[in-house]
User: What shape does this take?
Amino acid sequence: MGLILDQVNKYVEGEMHLADISLNLASGSRNVILGRTLAGKTSLLRIMAGLDRPTFGKIVMDGEDVTGISVRKRQVAMVYQQFINYPSFTVFQNIASPLQISGKPKARIKEKVMETARLLHLEEMLDRMPAELSGGQQQRVAIARALMKDSQLLLLDEPLVNLDYKLREELLEELTAIFKKRDCVVVYTTTEPSEALKLGGNIVVMDQGRVRQTGPTAQVYRNPATVNTAQLLSDPPINLFEAKLKDGHLTLGDDLAIAVTDPIASLSSGRYHIGIRPNHLYLHQQNPGDVKIHATVEISEINGSETFIHFQYSGYKTVLHEVGIDARKIGSDIAVHMNPANFFVFSEKGDLLISPGTANTFS
Amino acid sequence: MKKWQDNKGWLFILPVFIIVAFSAIIPLMTVVNYSIQDIFGPGQRIFVGTEWYKEVLTDQRLHDALWRQLLFSGLVLLIEMPLGIAIALTMPTKKGLGSSVCLVLIALPLLIPWNVIGTIWIIFTRPDIGLMGALINDMGWSFDHTASGLHAWITLMLMEVWHWTPLVILLAYAGLRSIPEAYYQAARIDGASAWAIFRYIQLPKMRGVLTIALLLRFMDSFLIYAEPFVLTGGGPGNATTFLSIYLVKIAVGQFDLGPAGAFSLIYFLIVLLFCYLFYQVLLNVGKGESS
Assistant: This one.
């Protein structure tokens, strides 16, 4: 049971918006669609909801083909980027609205509204109007409305993008807990890798209207199939270098030759892309096998309790992410440590060959 | 600490002060001046206190004009507001040639000078050569706005609706366009009917612009002068003698500057009062809603 998309394509005025999308989303699963702006996330959600029809392809919901069925006849709930509530209804009336249309008994509706309001911490403001609430509270009302319908499909289109950082963290945590208890298909789109990782569940990585990779989020994070996916799934972006492998030595950039062991050493000689996540670059040596490079700080930024240091290495823009505050002056020289055990190795075409073992420090 | 340093600020306010003084305060005070004196000629004036006010307030013809005026403004709002909203709802929503052509066509009446509008409608409704007047008369009804008070009112209402509904349409259309597409999607997902979408999304979201439209239309129609002046001159009889027309008759026709001054101030206060009431009511209805 769940939602199945079979070879879904969407063309608008001859322009491809979605190409060959086949997905199988199980009931009770959390699915995060990750992609940049204009990757086709919203188009895909609209097709799932039934707001748009696919140009080709089939949509099956709980075993029933719903491709041509209008949104009004489907059991769908949706939350948007903007905070969409009925402006002239109180919070209570807003939350109750989906059930009022369905004509359920009043006492039952009230009970359900109270239950949902409690879940989203809205009990105190049921008599207020949406415009009297903060952005975060308005979005809570919109989410509550979506939860009121016991829909088979719950769609959230970047619901937290218009909220400030603190609220986003808070709401994301609550949403993850709420989604876990639901037995509908939850689909959540975002541009932020960190949101996808926090929500967990499954991930669908989208780029330019195509699905690049799917799977359990943690697994995809550890084994991005291509350079492209690795870039989409890493914030700050993964550091990439071109490298040459010859006689058990990996030459990174212009001149850094690293003696490598298996499994990298067993690859055939040739050119590769090496990826290393910013949190696997260190200012201080961690292990005896670490390789040291010297660099000049271009920008050093502190974000909360984390430090990001940007520098160039052999012409490659590189970012180092250090936990804790360790600001460096612009222009100062630093030693950067890294370990080949943390390398992602991609073929010249960009396909993943080797990922750091899961036994390695995963974060 | 010396205060003179701060006085430079006055220089910046001076231009606005002068403009407002000449455009509003001085003319208004002149009117106040007329309204409390009897002026016979230069240097010959007598202070009369509230005498002109008493005279004006007990003038039966002014009462008649006031009721006529209220009826006219009420009808104008009752017709133009719903009609404007209805037309705005049927206009194309997508940007493109269709909506541009619509907007230009609708704005046309607003671009025509007021005296031309009056002249157009005089000719249009003439029973002998007017397109509308002749047509109606040929169909067997006698229609002549110079002969019948009712016909004069009908002609005037038609003219007013034709001339000013476009303003309501444009404002309502702008209000509708500013509603994010997601609201309509959400309503479709909720299974809301077209009426529910209008009542619970479009109407509340248009409240801001509709308030402005209502105030503008009320003020304009309450102060209407040009249209009846050109079309009927206040006749036949006194059928279309609205407050402004009566005021001009007193001030310019009879040159009774004292009563005219008192009349003007009362007129001004009535408009102010109604605008305040409308504004407060709409503000309270929309309390807590985003505009």
